[in-house]
Amino acid sequence: MSEEVRWARRPFDGHAISVPLEEDQELTHVLPGTPGGEYLRRFWHPVAMSDRLGHRPEPLRILGEDLVLFRDGSGRLGLLHKHCLHRRASLEYGKVEERGIRCCYHGWKFDVDGTVLETPGEPADSDIRHRYCQGAYPVHEVKGLIFAYMGPPEEQPPFPYLDSFDIPDHDLVPYSIHSPCNWLQESENSMDPYHSVFLHGRVNGPQFPGLEHFVELPVVVYHKRAEGFVYSHARRRDDLVMIRFHDHLTPNFAQNGGMFQVLSEPKTYGRTSLTKWVVPIDNTNSRKFGWRHFNDKDEVLRQGNRDEVGWEKVDFYGQTAHRSRDEMRDNPGDWEAWSSQGPINVHRRECLGQTDKGVSLLRAKLRRDIRAVARNEAVTRPVGTPEAPYHTYGGDTILRLPKDNQDDRAMMDRVQRDVAEIYFAADAYEGEDRTDYIKREVSARFCT
Question: ∠335-43-320 over CA atoms, to 5°?
Fold first, then answer.
């Protein structure tokens, strides 16, 4: 029998909701064999920063599995189950060799794909190494991040190369931050454009330089895509309308607009300042991996700081646990908002409204896809190569548009739908041709 949801519907009635409720296990549980965990294992996820990997094996925990990552003497990356298949000693104490890694306990040696290369204590004619493999996962390294695929080998997709990996003049700096909560709590934050109005504006005062106009409620449009969502939101300042596009590819990828912006003049197809994935460590911990994009054209205030980006740090406010308790309480940021929901937020305790449409859309898609995987059905995943990358849209367009005194919000809704239509039509082109098409069409439609 399902638990009854009880609400306080009169003053001083906290007692009405004192009965505990279970979390939404389908969406939040990620361990091997769970519906959500099997779904997540159909995608590539970042699992480490390259510069954190030295000459020793690095222990990791991802999707509830204990692993070790290493780079052998020939430069190949290996991601193996942490415990040696022989007697379960931890390979974090193993010795990395020219080819593979050797367990410290009895000297068994494994290749990067889990092949058993040597079992030195066994008889010379033993076939044991031909009958077993150490658990292993394929990896792919891109611009200082190491990705892994942890699903069935027969269903492994090609690594999805995105256009934002190679935006001209963008310098990508890797970073990673831990959150002591379920992965979905942080990931949902990227589908909630309304939180910026309050958390980063009205309640705590403007937290991001140049984005003071975000205190105004936006006009939001969600554009559904097979791989997830693109959504846009528009705000006005005098005769300028800023349209910010976000990418959210399911399950856990997001890109936003430019950091350290200023709403002062027209601009077409500015690009993202932030590319990120929220990767589950287990049910109650997650780790964000991503890149800060440094580019003066898309960060016109030039207040970014590369030295503040890396392991457990990024150069804008409120993203980590590494502030004093007093600062967190006086001026809470994103990290406090998603981690304070508890180790796993109980969705049935929430009272959702109109501003939660993005979160509801995301949860519904995740649920559909989780159930599709459980039925052995394919789910849509991004496909891209360096020559023909998957197209993304995160960034900003600013238009000079007179105010519609009849219904300005309806006008901003129409305009951002029109701009999105141009963005999507440009998918017929690649690289600079795509950018030129967007700028030409936006100019023709809105700047004449």
Answer: 15
